[in-house]
From TrEMBL:
Pfam families: RhoGEF. It comes from Alaudala cheleensis (Asian short-toed lark). This is ARH38 factor. The gene is Arhgef38. One of its GO terms (cellular component) is cytoplasm. It comes from the Eukaryota.
Length: 216
């Protein structure tokens, strides 16, 4: 019995050792496969990542690239230039019309001032009241304004807009404008001081009120 038992025990140990060897051998065979599979998977992920980046870059470039999408044909250069010229000419006509109207209003205001203020004060011959000192050369200013208005009307009446030469008018009257307004501006501060002094005198102030009321 003892030898039989020893034989049985030996067979069990041999089976155990054999089983362990088989397990270790199987493990050694599978480990490289697993490592290889993992490595291959990593390379696959890397290749997919690079592919995604390339595709994203291409799409981004497509979005950033200028796109010309037009359902109507482009305007010919000649037609665009003609439209721009028409707009400029229309604007020029409006500016000239405004210039003429402004000069008419200014000349009219000066005319009223002379007729309703300066001439009545001169006719009254008020003592200690210097009419010429108060209004300086405003009558020459009125004459020059009327001349400028006449030249502007002459340059624009019955003349096609493209042929209306306005700059030449101002160049023609440049010298007289400088000479006349130089005198008026030179005496302006003195005239303002004189007016403040007259407004402190009730009698003289009343004369000025009468003129203003006549203007209204």
């Amino acid at each position: 019995d003892s030898p039989g038992k020893e034989g049985t025990g030996g067979r069990k140990r041999n089976l155990t050792l054999l089983r362990n060897k088989l397990y270790m051998g199987q493990r050694r065979r599978t480990e490289p496969v697993v490592e290889s599979t993992t490595t291959a998977g990593d390379h696959g992920n890397l290749r997919r990542s690079q592919s995604d980046k390339t595709e994203y870059s291409q799409k981004l470039q497509e979005k950033m690239a200028p796109q010309v999408v037009s359902s109507t044909p482009a305007t010919p250069p000649q037609e665009g230039e003609e439209e721009a010229c028409r707009r400029m000419m229309a604007r020029r006509v409006k500016i000239i019309a405004e210039l003429l109207q402004t000069e008419k209003d200014y000349t009219s205001d000066l005319d009223l001032c002379i007729k309703e203020v300066i001439q009545p004060l001169r006719n009254k011959q008020i003592a200690h009241f210097d009419v010429d000192g108060l209004f300086s050369n405003i009558e020459l200013v009125h004459q020059l304004s009327a001349k400028l208005l006449s030249l502007l009307e002459e340059a624009t009446t019955d003349v096609e807009p493209p042929m209306q030469i306005i700059g030449e008018v101002f160049l023609q009257i440049k010298g007289p404008l400088e000479d006349t307004y130089k005198i008026y501006c030179y005496h302006h501060d003195d005239a303002h001081t004189m007016l403040e002094y007259y407004e402190k005198d009730e009698e003289l102030k009343q004369h000025l009120r009468d003129c203003v009321q006549s203007l209204k």
